[in-house]
Amino acid sequence: MEPKPVIELDGIRRDFVVGEETVHALRGVSFTIHEGEFVTIMGTSGSGKSTLLNILGCLDTPTSGEYRLDGTPVRTMSKTQRAVLRNRKIGFVFQSYNLLAKTTAVENVELPLMYNSAVSARERRERAVTALQRVGLGDRLNHKSNQMSGGQMQRVAIARALVNDPAVILADEATGNLDTRTSFEILVLFQQLHAEGRTIIFVTHNPEIAQYSTRTITLSDGKLREDRINDNILDAAEKLASLPIEED
Amino acid sequence: MNITNLFKIALKAIGANKMRSFLTMLGIIIGVSSVIIMLALGTGSKATIMQEIEDVDPGALMIIPGPEYEETGGNWLPEYSQTITQADYHSILDKSKYLKAVCPMVYSSGQFINGKNNHSGSVQGVNNEFLDINGLSISEGDMFTDAEVKGSAKVCIIGKTVVDKLFTNGADPIGTVIRINTMPVRVVGVLKSKGRTAFGQDQDDIVLMPYTTVMKRMTSQNYFDMIYVAATSKEMSQLAKQDVTEILRENHKLKEGDMQDFRVNSLEEATSMVDSVMNILTLLLSCIAGISLLVGGIGIMNIMYVSVTERTREIGLRMSVGARTVDIMSQFLIEAILISVTGGLIGVLIGAGISYIARFVMMHFTDYHILIAVEPWTVLLSFGICTITGVFFGWYPAKKAANLDPIDALRYE
Q: What secondary structure does DSSP assign to A148-184, as a single string?
C-alpha cells in the first residue's frame, strides 16, 4: 500500500510587495511528501526555502496554489485555524532552539500541549517526560535551559517538536549552531526518529546533511530545481563513530 | 488553552522578573493605599462631625442677625448685625407654639485670672436652657439658676481646659472666685469634657455666663448675637422655623417682598451642608490619590510594553507551537491584571494598616479623636479600579503582542 501523503503542494506561489515592486519568492512549486519520508530541502539564500518553510509550517499562506497538510487545505484557513493546525500537526525545530529562558526542560517540552485544552495537566507531564526520555534527556528533566549545552538544548527542542505527535517535523537549520560532533549526534537522533516512522523535513543550505536523508528537494529562484531520491543513505551513527573525540 | 494554564504562564513571567514586577506593583500599591487612606480619613472625619452634631438637639434652630447669604452675596453687612433684640426674644417666648427651649446668646472674650494663672478665651452669654439644646452637661457643681440669669449674677461655668489652665494646683474650682478681665466671677460649675472637634477646635476651652451679665457688665449691648431655640422634635423643626420667622417678621414690621434682616438655620440644614461639604472634600482627596493610581497604571503599561518587546521571540515561539491570538492576548492581559490586583491587595493592606495606626495614635496620644474607618465599599472600589487599571493599561501592550507576525517574531533579534 502506498504511504499516505502528508504534504501536498500544488503550484504554490508566494509574492511579497516591497515598496512598489513585487518580489516573487516562490514561482509555482509542486511536490508531495509521503508519510515516513526524511526530506532535505536545500537551496542558497534567496532561493525561497525560508518562504517555503513558513508556508509548510502554516506560519504563512501562499498567494496562490494549494497546500494540503495531512489532507487539510491550508490556504483559506484563518489565523486561528492555522494556529490550531500547527499545534496538532507540526513540530518545529529551530536553529537557535528557541527555548523559554529560566524554564526547565520538561516545562519547555510541555509548551505545545499547554495550548491544547484536550490534554490534562497530568497527561501533559507524562508525554513531556516520555519525549525527553526519547531524546536521551531522561536524567535532565528539571534542568533549566541556561544550564544545558547547545546539543542538549536542541534535544529539548526536538522533544518539544515530538510531544504533540505531529504529522511532520519541520527542522530549520537544526544543526546550524552546533559543532560537528554535536551536529552528528542530532542527525543520529533524526535518523532514529525517521526509522520509527516519523516524517521529517529538514531545511538546510548544507549539502552534507542531504546525504543522510531519503530525498533531497533543491530550490533555486523560487522554483523546484531538483527532486532526487537518495539511493545511498549514509548512516550518521557510523560517521559519528569515525569522528575524532575532541580532547580538551 | 484553559485559564489555569494562562495563570501559570503569567505567574511564571512575573516570577522571572521579580524586582521589575515589584517596582511596577509599587505604583499601584502607593496609589491604592493613598486612596484607601484618604477615603478612611474622609469618612472618619464626617462620622466624627456627625457625632458631634448628634449631641445637639436635633430640633435646634439658630436665629441669626443679617439676611440670607443668597441675599447679600455672602457679604457680612454691619447694619444688620444688631437686628435680634430683647423684644424678639420676648415675642418668641410669648407667641411661639412649637418650641421647648429658647436661649439668647451673646459673645465676648476676656482674660481669665486665678491667682498667678492666666488664660484668655471666649465667653458665651447664655441662659440655663443652653446645656439642653447643645447636648452639654455639668460634671461638677450646678448650672446657674434662672434667678442668677435674671439678676445678672457674676457666676460662670467653665470647661475642662479652663480648669486645667487656672487651677494648676489641683484645687476645687467650685466656689472659687476668679476674675474675668477686672470683674470677679464665682465658678459654680464645670462642664463635662468633650475633647476636640474634627477640625481641631477645643470644645473644653469654654466659659459660660448668664447672658444678662455679659450684656450688662462686659459688652454693654442691648441686642443678641443669636437666639438658640429647640423645636419640640426634629419633625417639628420646619414648622417651628416658619413660626419663628413669622413672629420676627411681624416684630420687624417686614412686608411681603421685603428683604429679611435675620435668618433661621436649622440643624438639619447644617447637617446636610456638612454632609455635602465632607463628601466633596473626600471626593477631592480621593481624586488626588487616584492620580497616583493612574500614574501606577501607566507604569504597568510601560513595563508591559518593554516586556512584549523583550519577549518577541518567546511570543513567536508560542505562536509557532499553536498559541492563538487570543491566547497571547490573554497571557499578557492576565499578567497585567495579576500585577495590578496583587498591587491592589498589598495597597489595601498597607492603606488599612496606616489608617488604623493613625486612628490608634490619635486616640491615645492626641486630643484629635477622628473615627478613621476603612469601609468595605472602599476596599471593593479599590479592587475594582485595580482590575480595570490592569485591563485598561494592559490592553494595548497585549494587543501589540497578539498582533505580532509569528515569522517576524521568531526572527526578531
A: S-HHHHHHHHHHHHHTT--SEEEEESTTTTS-HHHHH
